[in-house]
Design goal:
This protein is of the alpha/beta class. The chain has 11 helices and 13 strands.
Amino acid sequence: MALYAPGGSGSQISPEDLLTLLAVARLGKFTAAAHSLGLNHTTVSRRIAALEKSYGERLLVASPDGWELNAAGRQLLPVAEDIEAALGRIDARESSSLSGTIRLACPQAFALEFAVPALTQLQRSHPSLQIELITATQRARQYRSGVDIEIVVGRPDAPRSVAKHIRDYRLQLYAAQDYIAAHGMPVSLDDLADHRLIYYIENSLQVDDLDDAADALPRSAGFFRSTSVHAHVLATSNGVGIGILPDFLAHHNSRLVQVLPDQFSKHVSYWASVRHESLRNAGVRSVLEVL
């Protein structure tokens, strides 16, 4: 496939360079684009430089949000997507199959309970689709994070990205039945001051919806803190104290009982933050749909 720059200059444009531009446009970082393409950072930089030289114009501009396409780069975006789609049809077993690599970052609990079952089912239907899953509980970044989709707790404040609501859940109080038998059932929120509280390490997340849940409770007599929500569930099940747990992790745990259900229940939502360029990718749209 021979591509030439406009204006009759005769400069040939490499399809590989266009695919590199596409990866940078979606991920915003040379390092992330290099990883997704199986290249090194230097090769990505060299390909972008070669493409801009062949095209005769700058295609990317640096911003606080990472590398962004300028007007000339946006003109080349559909061409790069056509090349990607053509290669996908060659590699795929059937014309409707998805291919390529999708990078997803999401909280640990969401990953294990929702993302992994959905994504593995999607991959069974589309063998050429590859998934990279990063687990992290954090607020949506104002700037590019090097992933196609970022699942966060609370509506993201990322003006250059599209926010999509995924699902709701509730943070509630739970304790092991053995713990309640030994220490008694609290009858008010004030009673929690006499119990050990199980939750995240203070100031470790900076996620407003999660921080607010702990702030609504009195200072406890002790604590078990971890950055892992599954450690919270296990510690609560082992009778260490009273845990602030997602309802979807605790409801089916026969060892746990809910504590003060009429006095404490925090509504929380999972949201997806996706860049506009990534939404043009059929694989990204399909992942969002199954999530």
